Amino acid sequence: MPRRQFMADLKKAQTDVLPHAIHDLQQGDDDGQIEFLFSADDLSNSTEAVKVTALIPDLGDYPRSHEYMIFSGEEAPRHIAEALQNVRRTGGKTVYELLDIVSATLSRLSPDKDGDSQMPDSQFEDDGQLEEDDDDDVYDSDHEAFQVGNAQTTPCAQPSQGAKMRPADRAFRARIRSDLVAAKAAGFKVGVLGHVLDGFNAFVTVSIRIAKLGISEEAMEAWQLKATEYLILILQYPNGYKTNEELQGFDSIRLAPNIGLRVCAGKKYKPTLQEAIKAFTIVKNDRGSVSGNDLPKPEDDPEESSIKDTFISKPLNGLLQERLVTILRFRSAGMSWKGAEEHYNGQASAGADHSDAVPDMYFHPEPANPTWPGIVNADHYRDTRGGVSHSFPLLAMQFLLRHFVRCTEFCLVCHRKMDTELEAIKPYVCESELCLYQYMTLGFGPSIEHEILAQPYVVDLLVSFCYNSAAARKLKEFPDGLSLAVPPADTAAYNVTDPYGGGYGYNYRHNQQTPQEEKRAARELVPVFEVGFDRERLEIIFLEKPDACPVRRGDWIVMQMSGQLEAGEYHCRVAETTFYPTISINEPVVLRQPTQTQPPQGYNEKVDKPKAIKPVSPATTPKWLNATFQVYCEDFKILSKAEKCMSICRLLDTLPDVKALQEYLVKRHPADLKNWTDRISPAALSLLRWIIASNRACIMQVDGDSDGSSTVRKQERLYGMKNYMQFRFAMGAPDKEQRFLAEVRKTTDRLALAHPTLFAWHGSPLFNWHMIIREGLHFKNTDHGRAYGHGVYHALDAQTSTGYSGMHHNAGNTRAQGTWSQSVLRISSALALNEVVNAPAEFVSSNPFYVVAQLDWIQTRYLFVQCAPTLETIQIGTDTKPNNALAQDPKRIPRGISDSIVIPASAIKTSRTVKDERKADPPRNPGPLKRLKALGGFASSPIKVDDDDDDHDDADSISTDAADDEVLFGTDPEPEPQPVEPIVPVKFRGPITDFIPGTLDFSKLHLMPLPTYATSNTTKRLMKELQTCAKVQDSTPLAELGWYVDIEKIDNAYQWIVELHSFHTFEIKGRKLPLADDMKKKGAKSVVMEIRFNKDFPFTPPYVRVIRPRFLGFNQGGGGHIVLGGAMCMELLTNTGWSSVSSMESVLMQIRMAIASEPFARLDMRSAEQDYGTGEAADGYIRACQTHGWQVPPGFKEMAYGIGGPSNGWRDA
Predict the structure, then answer these.
(1) Closest by alpha carbon to 649, among 691, 597, 697?
(2) Above 80 in pLDDT, residue 1001?
(3) Whole-number mean pLDDT of the chain?
(4) N- to C-terminal Cα separation, the chain
(5) CA angle 406, 411, 414 (to 5 degrees)
(6) Measured between alpha carbons, how far is 932 from 372 in angstroms, rounded to an integer?
(7) Is residue 500 pLDDT above 90, yes or no?
(8) Cα distance between residue 592 and residue 566, in whole Å
(9) Which of 161, 343, 480, 1208 could form a disulfide with 637 if both were Cys (CB 3.0 to 4.6 A apart)?
(10) What's the rounded Cα separation, in Å, for the pair 1193 and 941?
């Protein structure tokens, strides 16, 4: 198998286009040996090729762990031989990859004609490969990173002063400037690090101020961003700048080493060079696996670094690197962003198919969201006309904004659009279990360690809500995709009641079993082992010794004691099994079951007693206690819903309380809970991560610790809710605040409201809050009836809402059944304070409750919980009125628990924003770029930042570096005049070309019938191609172009008539092209061709055939890729070689070059004046494809023969 793979890779490399300066690739004399020649201009002042040999010592290691020995012949220059000896990172590379590495290494040894270093498209000059190198091999300095320095160390690092600039260089630099200026003109800040204009390794940065993205302040809090920061996209060009068209032409193998993309947030509009290098530096963790880059984490606020990762940098980096260029290929075909992404996802799911139809839905324009700023809705492809080159940095930044600002609409793993109506302020994953597993294991979710350190009581709140919901059997979503191994489930033995009667019920044994339950009942039960337990020594001895130890070090077990004093569950980790049948355990976590007067329905009071303890030894016998244990080996996924709820409660009860978790993290560096292996089981830790990561609301502590240990920014308390712990609370999508403000403005203007909003309470049982903070407020479920209509119910009196928000709990300090045993808050009820549009007359009902059906009219502001803290350090603030109170509607001031509420003005910006905008003088209002109004008004979106900075657009907010201005707006010096050779008079030879455009009579051509098929998107693409061709014809000399399309005579965009001419301009080995002499003898001024396009163009190639004159076939001594019948025989024009990114301009050029290539095309001098028939060309095309093994495009029959098809009954291949 390794040798077969090696030979296949060698053959593929031989048939492919070899890397720069590599040719004559052959198999060597030994297995695993290859030989090839390397030749480059100015190589050691000689044009002679150097023979290079590469040998794999052990071919059995191919293609994963093999190494190469690379050496040159004795005649090779010394510096070439030394360079080959120093080639590294060849382990595990394919044949083609090795050739590319050698090409890149040797090409650097020779400067080009201008004195610049060669910059081949090496596919392995990628920072991603640095993880295999020593630390010293990572960029030691900026000079090494960009190959710049003094002339002694890197003589080819910069263009020499004497180097003369070629026209191609000037055009290349002009294109770079055009691309970067396009990004700046679109409203972004553009920065450059390195010599991008000179073709070296360089970075380009595109950035925008966070405040200009229309993200609500609550979303910024949830996303750990500041309004004054910048969202930065760093583009790395390891092998010099590449245009959008060049990148789209690369395959996946060659793409990675030519472009790198990273997303970060920064204090300035661009990072330093060292920071940009850090963004692309691969970092390994203690276990040797890749953990990410070297940037600070999102929650950090480092002083030594101006940039840090954003909260979703990791998934966005993967999305941009893996999919962006492919999606841009689809966009260049006319698809929208949405259509291109859906088409990509469809191909990824079903595999690449060759169907002849691309659904029109992918080409439908995507409507803009009026709540987002114009810069978020902008589309470079949509906003530019056909024929205009597109800026890759701008397209990449627009794609980034699409997935950053709208991150809650997409899955963070598969990046598909979420198929749900639920809105959230934080992003998450779709319903796929695989996505959930990858989300948790790849570290895409939030850092639970940071949440515990910063907001421990928010974590306590989230866990308590989940526990309440699980205990009441109200959970709807479960962590099925995490592969949790949990203790064996026994709902009858776990003492939890269902006080609400609305859950799944634990009495399923008395009802008809579901298929899931039948599956569980049918499988083998988890073994129960009878043991003796020494509590002092933490040792377990097996009473009946199994043949092999049933547990391993690190396994978690659950033990049951037979005595009343020791009753309960002992969850612990196996510490050592060396002295089996005696094993050691870590300190167990003991769960004491709460007592109850009556067992739940279906509870079995019978408990099997363990067998008597057998004597251990005549020596001193330890204090063995009778016990049984089972291993954590139950698959959580296959449990019934009731058993899943019970397992969640058991696992959460094994966790330490949040203050213990916080204390552990404070004392450890790095702070990582996965290292607390002897206290927290893997299943419990994964469950904790799921609870925190799946929280899609923004909850911020208002109250904290009296010792000041909390790191959360201090918030003002609301007055009127004495003895209730307060949290700032926001839900809904990132644009939910903007939609709410838009409704407030419209209603305020329509009703002339003095107070645009009112505040009201919403209460709900504790078991509902786990889902509320994930789904938002809605009225899909009915818990307490709907006597006053459908909508979200509110009350002006908190006492009314608390009647719906509590749970059945015991008085005093006794823990209520259904509450988390480790909670330090001991929550007994919760209710929210919502801000609502002040239009009660338009509510579903306004008495005795406010029933609001318009969800965009509601925005949550506060969450209040009644609790009985177990720690004295937990401080519930005093109930004092804030100094700066928010003005409320005096007729509708809500009543709190202790008094009418007074809200601090700093907490609510809605009323102030609307009022200030309405009263502002017109001349003082920000301009249109600042306001970013979109389709009906976007008045409040960008969050206010410092006035000195916010009154200007982003282009002026921070001065641009002089170096960036030079790149963006500088001009290249004019080329130095070259010495002019004396002009030798020559005899006038007539015009450059004898072709006269516009003289062809279309009425005398034998053409195929006009096509009757058409699709709107293909038609648009063909019209753009015609416009581009017309522009090229107008700007290029006729003889130099060599082809002509009479645009005015084309009646159908799917059928072109093209004339190829001026073949006398070709010279082959110093001689004119034979075809030029043949055409001159026959008086033919051009080769007339018909090009037919299928309805799926550009995803299928065009069909090209010659109409006149007639050519000799291959067997008659002809050539030029023209087969018998007149069809063009080129792989490019088949499904095998066609690329959807090819332009017709390039296709016409390649066809003309193919006709001029060997074996040369020759006219049939006996019948050159006759036209080809339409049927014979199609037959010849099919034969040629079958001969070469090329794939005939789908739908060719309809395109080439018409609907009826050929008379011989040929079918589509």
Answers:
(1) 691
(2) yes
(3) 77
(4) 33
(5) 130
(6) 8
(7) no
(8) 9
(9) 480
(10) 50
What strands lie across the sheet with 1043-1045, from one edge to the other? 1043-1045, 1055-1060, 1087-1092, 1103-1108
Q: What band does 163 get if pLDDT is binned at 50, 70 and 90?
A: very low
Number of H helices and number of E strands within the chain? 35, 35
Query: CB–CB of 1073/1063 below 8 Å?
Result: yes
Q: Are strands 757-763 and 704-705 parallel, antiparallel or unpaired?
A: unpaired
Neighbours of 897 (CB within 10 A): 18
CA distance 15 to 25: 10
Name the residue with tokens 């899943």. 644
- Identify the H or E element spanning 1034: helix 1016-1035
CA gap 733, 149 in Å, rounded: 50
- Look at residue 171 in the predicted model and tell me its pLDDT: 84
Give the distance, in angstroms, between the CA of residue 85 and the centroid of all CA atoms in the same chain.
39
Which of 172-176, 339-343, 345-349 has the lowest average pLDDT? 345-349
407, 867, 1129, 1185: which one is catalytic? 1129
* Residue 842 reports pLDDT greater than 60: yes
Six-digit token string for 279: 């963004």
- Percentage of the chain beyond pLDDT 90 is 22
Secondary structure of residue 763 in the 3-state scheme: strand
CB-based contacts of 1126-1131 (< 8 A; 24+ apart in sequence): 1126/1172, 1126/1176, 1126/1177, 1126/1180, 1127/1103, 1127/1177, 1127/1178, 1127/1180, 1127/1181, 1127/1184, 1128/1089, 1128/1104, 1128/1154, 1128/1181, 1129/1180, 1129/1181, 1129/1184, 1129/1188, 1130/1154, 1131/1188, 1131/1190
What single DSSP character describes residue 351?
-
What's the CA gap between 992 and 1203, in Å, rounded? 44
For this structure, is 1129 an active site residue?
yes
189-193: strand order across its sheet: 189-193, 202-209, 230-237, 260-266, 307-308
842: tokens are 């338009």
| Residue 334 CB partners (closer than 8 Å, separation 6+) | 363, 1017, 1020, 1021
CA atoms within 13 A on the CB side of 140: 8
pLDDT value, residue 38: 87
The confidence score (pLDDT) of residue 832 equals 92
The residues near 149 (Cβ < 8 Å, ≥ 6 apart) are 143, 157
pLDDT above 50: residue 119: no
Structure tokens that stand for 789 in this block: 């209509």
Q: Cis peptide leading into 670, omega within 30 of 0?
A: yes
Strand partners, 266: 230, 307
pLDDT digits (tens, 9 = 90+) for 745-791: 999 999 999 999 999 999 988 888 888 887 777 666 655 556 788 88
Q: Token pair of 771, please? A: 């889902």
Is the pLDDT assigned to residue 604 strictly greater than 60?
no
Nearest of 397, 393, 418 to residue 341 by alpha carbon: 418
State how far the Cα of 282 lies from the Cα of 127, in Å rounded to an integer. Answer: 7
Give the chain's length: 1213
Separation between Cα atoms, residue 276 and residue 6, nearest integer Å: 38
pLDDT of 592 > 80? The answer is no
Classify burial at 841, counting beta carbons within 10 Å of its beta carbon; exposed 0-12, middle 13-18, buried 19 or more. Answer: exposed
